[in-house]
């Protein structure tokens, strides 16, 4: 059976946080012991139709992705579709589940009238760069961050 | 007199598009002859409190920036503040107006509870990379784009 992509619910938050923490970079950044901040963030995401937070459901949650539609003036008023927080559980890698998730995001972005799909990946994630390049993404930009905390 | 940063209005759209087109990359991407798509995008931005589209007003519009607050689950439910479409008119460069705009965005992001400010710049804009690094940004990510048009 192929896992299906569906909208995340509040009941999925613990599983999504588990996926975010199951990662070399995420392990140091997440706190799976207290879901309060995650649930509050989920409510903000879920209330705004600009966002689509989805899970890949294979009986249990095995993947997640957040898509956000961003209107802008540049490129003749182009709408950007931004992909964040793509994760597939480590026990299910090599099964093309990442492709399934990202292809869903690209199709959904097109369906909602976006002109470009964009994302950033940590410079250390060289496997991820090759993965996105195989799906047609071009590494044309530098992603810069300023932490406020 | 120091130029002031204020929320953009519909009447500013022509000037903002002029700024977007006054740029080596933007010149090929923008169409200053027909504002229809830009005005429609402006209305979408203006209607959503997640966005702040501002101009730098020096009697005339000499700069622009779009800030968007993005809730997310990762990093313990961190809110990201994304900066897009930063431009300063070519006749006013070297006057620290870019710093003024970006510092406003950082302050506004902090005021609205964001944990990180993020942006991408075209890999060819090496001056921009140095500019953002001077303001404390770290070039930690690769920005990838997939065009749908």
Quick structural summary:
2 copies of one chain form a homodimer. Chain A has 149 residues and is an alpha+beta fold. Chain A has 5 helices and 6 strands, in the order E-H-H-E-E-H-E-H-E-H-E.
SSE topology:
The structure is a homodimer of 149-residue chains.
Chain A: E1 4-7, H1 13-21, H2 36-47, E2 51-57, E3 61-71, H3 74-77, E4 79-88, H4 97-111, E5 116-122, H5 126-134, E6 138-147
Parallel strand pairs in A: 4-5
Antiparallel strand pairs in A: 1-2, 2-3, 3-4
Q: How would you sum up this structure, described in words?
A:
The structure is a homodimer of 149-residue chains. By secondary structure, chain A is of the alpha+beta class. Chain A has one domain (4-134): 3-Layer(aba) Sandwich (Aminopeptidase), CATH 3.40.630. Helices cover 33% and strands 33% of the residues of chain A. Chain A has helices at 13-21, 36-47, 74-77, 97-111, 126-134, and strands spanning 4-7, 51-57, 61-71, 79-88, 116-122, 138-147. A five-stranded mixed β-sheet of chain A has the order 1-2-3-4-5, sandwiched between helices. In chain A, α4 links the parallel β4 (79-88) and β5 (116-122). The interface between A and B is large, with 67 and 67 residues. β5 of chain A pairs antiparallel with β6 (138-147) of chain B, so a sheet runs across the interface.
């Amino acid at each position: 059976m192929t896992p299906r992509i569906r909208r995340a619910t509040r009941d999925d938050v613990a599983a999504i946080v588990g996926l975010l923490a199951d990662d070399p970079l995420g392990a140091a950044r997440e706190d799976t012991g207290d879901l309060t901040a995650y649930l509050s963030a989920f409510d903000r995401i879920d209330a705004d139709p600009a966002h689509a937070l989805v899970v890949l459901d294979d009986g249990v949650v095995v993947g997640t992705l957040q898509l956000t539609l961003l209107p802008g003036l540049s490129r003749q008023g182009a709408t950007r579709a931004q992909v964040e927080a793509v994760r597939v559980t480590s026990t299910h890698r090599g099964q093309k589940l990442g492709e399934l998730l990202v292809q869903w995001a690209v199709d959904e972005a097109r369906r909602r009238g976006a002109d470009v799909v964009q994302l950033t990946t940590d410079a250390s994630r060289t496997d991820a760069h090759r993965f996105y390049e195989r799906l047609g993404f071009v590494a044309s930009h530098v992603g810069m961050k300023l932490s406020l905390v």
